[in-house]
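Hello K.,

You asked for the raw outputs rather than the summary table, so here they are, unedited. I folded two proteins back to back in the same session to keep the settings identical. This is the first:
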Amino acid sequence: MAYELAYGPLDHRYANESQAAIHEQLQTLNYMFGAANFTDEKKNKKNPVPEPQRYPRPGDLLYPAEDDDEE
């Protein structure tokens, strides 16, 4: 409420960023849960859940990340 009084109402960027962060956290939790419960030393050595990946933000479409290798 104080932020909205100082800077105006929130737009869709805040919601999109929050949803992307929540999505990444869920990926991480699923990955850790899969590793803890579905892997063992004898049978299943590989985690059945894929590794978490960064969820693309709306700004990533307009300004893609630059590679540091190309200098």
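The second followed immediately with the same parameters:
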Amino acid sequence: MSGTSSIGWRNCRARPPSDKADTSSATSGTTRCTLAAAHPRILALGGGAIGGALTSVALLRMSGVGSWLICLVALAFYSWGIVCGLFLLEARPGAERMNLHLWFAQVPMFASPLATNSLSSGFYAGALLQIDPFKLNVDARIGSTFRRNLLHDGTPFAIGINVAALTATCVSAFVSAASMT
């Protein structure tokens, strides 16, 4: 062993007590993670927890089977986010791949009178192009949101992309491919 062992993301390293190269470590033999390496865990865990809590509150206020089903789908998604974050934290095999699917599910956004879908867990930065009237909406926010509607008359047609989720998907795919080699 060369003094560093990979535990999930590349910037996290477990250092043995004899490694004196980094004096900023408070205790020897500990696992240190930079913010760049820790953010997928934080976003997956935190986004899933916040989204789950907010969806649970919304679920208590909902009436009607359709609204309950939409909230249950969102609650299942945020629960999956918590599981992905925990698996990344524990450095389980395949955790990067699970996280890739979590982020990929957040990439597309669309709206129409028939159905609407917009979902984010942890962080959102995206662009939404509304067709009629023609309008481009660019937005960024920290937190978890979901918007799903079925048969909602008056909703304008729009398509969009969550750029933050697309970036996280690409990074997750790169990390997942790198960890296989």
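Residues 32-180 form one domain.

Happy to rerun anything if the numbers look odd on your end.

Regards,
P.
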